[in-house]
Amino acid sequence: MIQSVEVMRQSTPLKKPFKTALRTVYSTESIIVRIQSNDGRVGWGEAPATIVITGDSLDSIHSAIVHTFTPLLVGKSLLAYERILQEIHQSMIGSSSAKAAVDMAIYDLVAQHCGLPLYQFLGGYKDQIETDFTVSVNSPKEMGEDAVRYVQEGFNVLKIKVGKDDILEDIERIKEIRRCIGSSVKIRIDANQGWQVKDAIRTIRRMEDLGLDIELVEQPVKAGDIEGLKMVTDHVETPIMADESVFSPIQAFEVLKSRAADLINIKLMKSGGIYKAQIINHIAEEFGVECMVGSMIESRVAVTAAAHLAASKKNITRCDFDAPLMMLQDIVVGGVKYDGRVMTFPKASGLGILDVVPSQSPVGS
């Protein structure tokens, strides 16, 4: 039975500003959730503020958890977690990040009750995964230097941010990175909605003609432009991945039904947690479409939960979990561990998180 819900706020500087077509981030800022059951077990969750993508601020996340979700949670049996999660999703529109934080803490507790690591509770397809590393959008020279450093650190897949300036500059960025790192490293491109439809087609085709060997292009056009997304997908050879276009299972179905994308990027902060993320993955799998699981700029709390999901499913074939490696400090004790690009899981049940030491004190309960 759920006994209490505690909410804490944390802010940790990044080693280097994280730049995309949508924003520049200097620190991780998130709400940490600690849910305790009456047998003393603790479940952990996290929700970063990503206003330009999810619309969720720290204040709105805090308010949703404290004022809407906590009254629904306290006193409920964890053995009825399906009912709890349904009530959470039905209790308010939006607030997907706040829902995700509560969702992962609930799954943490349920898996602990069953005595299983969460990835085994969810399916247990594999016991380790590999992440890419993201190159922020800067000048071609700086991006080339960053790419070389990440490859030297052991990463063999790089995710390159573009879409901030004109398309010619983006082409120069990719040319310089490919020149610097050679042909053996995979390159993924993420435009974060930064291109117009015809510019996206022109840019991707030009990169194909140049032999830049791009594995995939993520969200080239505006999130709501599904017809435009399909037009890009239909007119280039490079696989196209939908990210911001897919928050919910119904959005995933619409994208997949129209064949508007070749791949889907699932993020817990978009789906509202593991419960809905699994539905998205299952729908995609039925369409024969593979999924990536990614993350926002968040600590190892949320990334650990996302990593457990990614390891549990056959259809999740790519991972983007580099955010904790960008932080100056690690606030998590336990949880998923990094050995370069390889991520492994503790043998403990649930998420395997022992404690979280945020940089700021509790803000409510």
What can you tell me about this protein's structure?
There is one protein chain. The protein is an alpha/beta fold. It contains twelve helices and 17 strands. The chain has helices at residues 58-73, 81-91, 96-114, 118-122, 140-152, 167-181, 197-209, 226-235, 249-257, 268-271, 274-286, 300-312; strands at 2-19, 24-37, 42-48, 128-130, 133-135, 157-161, 186-190, 214-218, 240-242, 263-267, 291-294, 316-319, 332-334, 337-339, 342-344, 353-356, 362-364. Strands 5-6-7-8-9-10-11-12 form an eight-stranded parallel β-sheet. The protein has a four-stranded antiparallel β-sheet with strand order 3-2-1-17, with helices on both faces. Strands 4-15-14 form a three-stranded antiparallel β-sheet, covered by helices on one side. A hairpin with a 4-residue loop joins strand 2 and strand 3. The radius of gyration is 20 Å and the shape is globular. It starts with a strand and ends with a strand. Mean pLDDT is 96; it is low at 361-365.
